[in-house]
Fold:
Amino acid sequence: MYAITIPEPGGPESLVWAEVPEPVPGEGEVLVEVVASAVNRADLLQRQGFYDPPPGTSPYPGLECSGRIVALGAGVTGWSVGDEVCALLVGGGYAEKVAVPVGQLLPVPEGVDLTTAAALPEVACTVWSNIFMIAHLRPGETLLVHGGASGIGTMAIQLAKAVGARVVVTAGSPAKLARCAELGADVLIDYREQDFVAELHKATDGAGADVILDIVGAKYLERNIEALAVNGRLVIIGLQGGVKAEVNLRALLAKRAAVMATTLRTRPEQEKAAIVAAVREHVWPLIGAGTVRPVVDRTVPMPDAAEAHRILESGDHVGKVLLLAPGA
Structure:
């Protein structure tokens, strides 16, 4: 088969479409013939040499895919050859085939085509696990989402609105904020032109956000704590703004606030399976009903993954950028 390989870390040009050995599904795994994958920020870091896949896993980038099951490993039940699925991956999505633990498989949601389904597993699992399983966002609370026009952001807006929360977003242009508003965001903040802490406090009569989903990291840490409400929960899932910052513990104490940081890729299979099961139970019905929908900016042929990485790095997108496998 063919896959996107990274012979040497570097820029987008370091991604090479090359012939590689076909994976063999192990016990409790299935082999999926990939129709589409999606580009995530973690893929860019892996390409640059900053985010190696866990030992013993696929060396190829790609944290989610959609496709059809073509082989079953030992002990697999509940799935059949020919089933159309999408999957959360530890890696290997930028390839014609990938082996997937059954606990990380999802059926294609009702009303979603097989290609578009590739836009769902990583964002749905990331958002549901962080905002609801960890931060416990409740109806009537206020959620602040940084990067509201990203794949994560567009899913977070919709899921938070579906459970009755108020959503505040930051984004870098009026056009992106307009797209966030279309998805249901209540308060729109242009982080290039406005102070998000001041605007958030203005919109909440000084109360702040009950939950903040942050992709920036160190650069925003102090301001995020300032933006939290009493008993607020800050969840950090990205480090685009650096990895080291000082924490004002007095401010945390005064607000009885919590700061949490998580990753999805390195979690044990059992934890991923639990998250996938929760997404299937809680998110898939919302997608089937049309309450929540995947947001796809554009598709790019998988052999041209370098172009997809350039698009993501430029920030010139809303929602997900998908990679189409040859012949899909």
